[in-house]
C-alpha cells in the first residue's frame, strides 16, 4: 500500500469539504492528493482466452465487492458497445479486458455473479456489459449513492476528491476507446477509475447509514439490477436535434428518410451517425425540400459532400417527396400518459391545481431530505397521479397508485403524505 492509499484508509486525513450540505462543520483538512499510478502498476490488457481464464479464476478466488467500469466510444463508433472493461477486487488486483478480442465475458460474469458489483452511474454501463455476458445480481452505484446522500457534485472525479481526498486525472474520458493498441496513458486512466471505487463505496455506505438512507439506496440498487433491458425507442428519428422547426408532414417524412438512411450507413461503417451526416443538415434538407442534388448541395451541411453521396441523400429526399398523404408521419408522437403540463390549465384546471400543489410539496420534501427531486420521485409519476388521482384520496389509495407507477417502497412511504395533502387541498 502506498502512502496515498494509507491516507485514504485514515478517515481523519480525508477531504470532507465536498460532504453533503447537512454535514455541519465539515471543512477541508488536507489538500487533495493526485492519484497518478495504480498501486500495482498498469495491468496488461487481457486479449486472449488463456489470459481471460487466468483472470476469471483470480477474480473468482478474490473476496469482497468487485469494482467494475466500462469504456465506450460514443461519438466515434456506432452503438454503445464496450471497448474496454476494468475490474478490481481484493485478492485479485486490477484487470483490463479487451472485449473486442474477448467478446464473450459470460464466464467471468458468472464467476463474480454472487459478488456485489460497484459501478459509478450503473445505468450507463450495464447495457454494454450485458451485451458481452456480464450481468450482476447485486450492485452499489456510487453516483446514485452520492445523489441520495446530498452531494452537490456526483461525477466520479468529484466524489473521489471530496470523499477520499484524491484527484483523478479525467482527461481521457471522451477519447476513442476503439483505438488499438490503446495508449499507455489511457490504460493508466482506465485502471485508476476502479482503483478506489470500493473505498468510495465503503465511505458512501457509512454516510448513507448516518443519514438513515441506506435502505433507500439498497432499494434503488436492487431496482437497477433487476430492471429488464430497455425497449427500443419508437420512432427514434423524432429525437433529431432541431425537430421543433419541422412542422409539415412532408418535411417530417424527409427527416425520417434521411435519418434512417444515415443510420444504415453508420451501422455498416461502424461510425457514429453524427460523423455521417449532422442533425442540422437533416433538418435543413427537410425544411428546404430540395428538388435535386444541385439544390441539396447548396444547403448547409451538404456543400462538401461528393456527388455520389449527394445522390444518395437526394434519393432519400425523393422517397419522402413521393409518399402518399396516408404514408406521411403524423406530427408529434402518440401520447400514452398525461398531456404536457403547460396544457393542463386549459384541459383540466382541477388537475393543474393538483399538480401545482404536489410539485410544491415534493420540492419542499426533497429539500428537507437533501436530495434531488427526481431521485425522491420521478416527475412523470407525480404527473400521472395528479392527472388521474384515486377516486378516494387517502394514504392507502395514494400508496397503491405510486406503487403501481413503479415507485419503490421508501419513495411510497416518503411521498404519500405529501401527495395526500396536495390532492386533498386541491379538491377542497
Q: Overview of this structure, please?
A:
The protein is α/β, with parallel strands linked by helices. The protein has 20 helices and eight strands. The protein has helices spanning 3-9, 49-61, 106-111, 122-131, 142-149, 156-164, 184-193, 197-211, 214-226, 249-269, 273-276, 279-288, 293-297, 307-321, 344-347, 349-369, 373-376, 379-387, 395-404, 409-427; strands at residues 33-34, 45-46, 63-72, 82-90, 93-97, 116-119, 138-141, 166-167. It has a six-stranded mixed sheet, sandwiched between helices. Strand 6 (116-119), helix 4 (122-131) and strand 7 (138-141) form a beta-alpha-beta unit. Residues 1-18 and 23-28 have low confidence and may be disordered.
Task: Produce the secondary structure layout.
Elements: H1 3-9, E1 33-34, E2 45-46, H2 49-61, E3 63-72, E4 82-90, E5 93-97, H3 106-111, E6 116-119, H4 122-131, E7 138-141, H5 142-149, H6 156-164, E8 166-167, H7 184-193, H8 197-211, H9 214-226, H10 249-269, H11 273-276, H12 279-288, H13 293-297, H14 307-321, H15 344-347, H16 349-369, H17 373-376, H18 379-387, H19 395-404, H20 409-427
Parallel strand pairs: 1-8, 2-5, 3-6, 6-7
Antiparallel strand pairs: 3-4, 4-5
Low-confidence stretches: 1-18, 23-28
What's the helix count? 20
Structural class: alpha/beta
- Strands of the largest sheet, in order across it? 2-5-4-3-6-7
Major β-sheet profile: 6 strands, mixed
Oligomer: single chain
Give helix and strand order, one letter per element, not per position. HEEHEEEHEHEHHEHHHHHHHHHHHHHH
**Quick one: overall form?**
flat
Provide the residue-averaged pLDDT: 92
**What does the radius of gyration come to?**
26 Å
Q: Based on DSSP secondary structure assignment, what is the total number of beta strands? A: 8
| Strand residue content | 5-15%
Bin the helical content. 40-55%
Span of the ends, CA to CA: 65 Å
Amino acid at each position: 500500500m502506498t502512502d496515498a492509499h494509507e491516507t485514504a484508509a485514515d478517515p481523519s486525513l480525508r477531504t470532507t469539504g465536498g460532504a453533503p450540505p447537512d454535514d455541519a462543520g465539515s471543512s477541508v483538512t488536507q489538500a487533495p492528493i493526485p492519484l497518478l499510478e495504480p498501486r500495482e502498476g498498469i495491468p496488461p490488457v487481457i486479449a486472449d482466452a488463456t489470459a481471460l481464464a487466468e483472470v476469471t479464476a483470480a477474480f473468482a478466488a478474490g473476496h469482497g465487492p468487485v469494482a467494475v467500469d466500462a469504456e465506450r466510444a460514443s461519438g466515434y463508433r456506432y452503438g454503445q458497445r464496450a471497448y474496454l472493461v476494468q475490474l478490481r477486487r481484493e485478492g485479485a488486483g486490477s484487470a483490463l479486458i479487451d472485449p473486442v478480442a474477448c467478446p464473450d465475458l459470460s464466464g467471468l460474469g458468472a464467476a463474480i455473479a454472487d459478488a456485489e458489483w460497484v459501478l459509478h452511474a450503473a445505468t450507463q454501463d450495464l447495457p454494454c456489459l450485458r451485451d458481452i455476458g456480464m450481468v450482476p445480481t447485486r450492485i452499489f452505484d456510487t453516483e446514485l449513492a452520492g445523489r441520495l446522500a446530498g452531494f452537490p457534485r456526483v461525477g466520479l472525479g468529484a466524489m473521489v476528491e471530496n470523499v477520499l481526498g484524491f484527484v483523478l486525472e479525467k482527461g481521457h474520458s471522451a477519447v476513442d476507446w476503439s483505438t488499438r493498441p490503446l495508449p499507455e496513458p489511457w490504460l493508466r486512466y482506465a485502471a485508476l477509475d476502479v482503483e478506489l471505487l470500493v473505498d468510495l463505496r465503503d465511505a458512501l455506505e457509512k454516510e448513507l447509514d448516518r443519514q438513515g438512507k441506506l435502505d433507500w439506496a439498497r432499494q434503488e440498487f436492487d431496482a437497477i439490477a433487476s430492471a429488464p433491458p430497455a425497449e427500443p425507442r419508437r420512432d427514434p428519428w423524432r429525437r433529431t436535434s432541431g425537430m421543433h422547426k419541422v412542422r409539415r408532414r412532408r418535411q417530417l417524412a424527409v427527416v425520417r428518410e434521411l435519418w434512417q438512411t444515415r443510420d444504415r450507413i453508420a451501422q455498416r461503417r461502424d461510425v457514429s451517425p453524427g460523423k455521417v451526416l449532422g442533425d442540422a443538415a437533416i433538418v435543413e434538407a427537410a425544411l428546404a425540400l430540395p428538388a435535386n442534388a444541385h439544390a441539396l448541395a447548396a444547403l448547409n451541411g451538404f456543400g462538401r459532400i461528393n456527388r455520389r453521396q449527394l445522390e444518395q441523400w437526394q434519393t432519400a429526399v425523393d422517397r419522402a417527396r413521393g409518399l402518399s398523404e396516408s404514408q406521411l408521419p403524423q406530427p408529434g408522437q402518440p401520447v400514452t400518459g398525461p398531456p404536457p403540463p403547460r396544457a393542463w390549465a386549459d384541459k383540466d384546471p382541477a388537475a393543474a391545481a393538483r399538480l401545482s400543489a404536489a410539485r410544491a410539496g415534493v420540492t419542499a420534501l426533497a429539500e428537507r431530505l437533501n436530495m434531488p427531486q427526481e431521485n425522491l420521485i420521478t416527475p412523470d409519476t407525480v404527473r400521472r397521479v395528479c392527472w388521474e388521482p384515486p377516486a378516494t384520496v387517502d394514504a392507502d389509495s395514494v400508496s397503491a397508485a405510486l406503487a403501481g407507477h413503479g415507485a419503490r417502497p421508501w419513495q411510497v412511504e416518503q411521498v404519500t403524505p405529501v401527495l395526500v395533502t396536495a390532492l386533498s387541498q386541491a379538491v377542497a
